[in-house]
Amino acid sequence: MKKLHRIAIVGGGAGGLALATALGHRLGRKGLARITLVDAGLTHIWKPLLHEVAAGTINSFEDELNYFAHSAKNHFEFQLGRLDGIDRENKTLHLAPLTSENGEMIADARSVAYDTLVLAIGSTSNDFGTQGARDNCIFLDSRPQADRFHKKFLDMYLQAHALPEDAPVRPELNIAIVGAGATGVELAAELHHASHEFVQYGLDEIDPHHVNITLIEAAPRILPVLPEAASLAAHAQLEKIGIHVLTGQLVTNITPDGLHTKDGLFVPASLKVWSAGIKAPDFLKDIAGLETNRINQIVVTPTLQTTRDDNIFAFGDCASCQLPGMERPLPPRAQTAHQQAKYLVKAMVARLEKRPLPAFEYRDYGSLISLSSANTVGSLTGNINIQGRIARLMYLSLYRMHQVSLHGFFKTFVLWCKDMLSKTSGPTLKLH
To answer: Is CATH 3.50.50.100 the right assignment for the domain spanning 133-278+370-380+383-425?
Structure first.
């Protein structure tokens, strides 16, 4: 019996899951290769939705996807586990023991053999060693973290709702967000929207005008990935809806009561979010002797192969790929991972057929930023600035495109219909 080529993919984010799904249909279904996806969690949710999970404007339990169920339908295998090491000589992944939330042992450490390994582990927030950030801020790198923020956000409304009617002081809620990239800006706008939604459900003890949201950015302007005109338009829109935007302010210390900046400014905040900068997870630093950069990203060639092992590929936020003619590595965006996943499907087929791998080609389609119900701004290829209804429809289509890559057009249409019905029949805010 012919031995199947074993392709192991570590990381079930948008790129890793899309790659496993496509390879399952292209190779796994035909018995041409054995595809295994490894992830430390049981479910997947599209990472650009995490700011909506945190605000409660979507229900994470309705939008998540179970890896076991998805793998069974799409001709690949799933292994639950956290990467603990790579044995390049024996082509083996080592997975850490599985434990329950109470620390009880579920399964011993295990190994997964591979012929081709693809690392798609994503990124985490980079706090740059800022004093007090880890102890006093919530990060939005995963669904559990977004759920934790939402729970704290909701608890403050429930606490205010329980106050006696003759309470002498009208409660206030102070929220500070460090970092005005896409995540920080979208979270600020979504929280502003949620503060008005709470009123519709009787939780009106905290007046929306008493929800003070401050967005703090060290750079001269917000959304540096956008052209300056689009960035300024977003800045103006945020201030118009009452969000305080501070630029050129470097946060140096964070305490339980608020944030201190280098210029001596103090921003009071009971809820604090860190969304400034990214890095690859710390355990990737020099893993298995592979080349990594200063933010732990694995350095790869234009074929997305690691510089020291042709049998290992890396892509998405965990990889640093500088293409010929480019001044800097590819940006850590969802569209980068999406394009790389599509390329790797072709590269894996070429690899199995022992053909030379084509070089990856990247095309920047621009960026879109959602300001919740207030607006959507962005830029397209050629620095064409857009905003308003057309930009909003384009932004919403990004998630549907991700769903199409996982489920196909028909099921995505069914999911869209379900979402439309949920919006008209259920609450627009997650209240539990």
So the answer is: yes
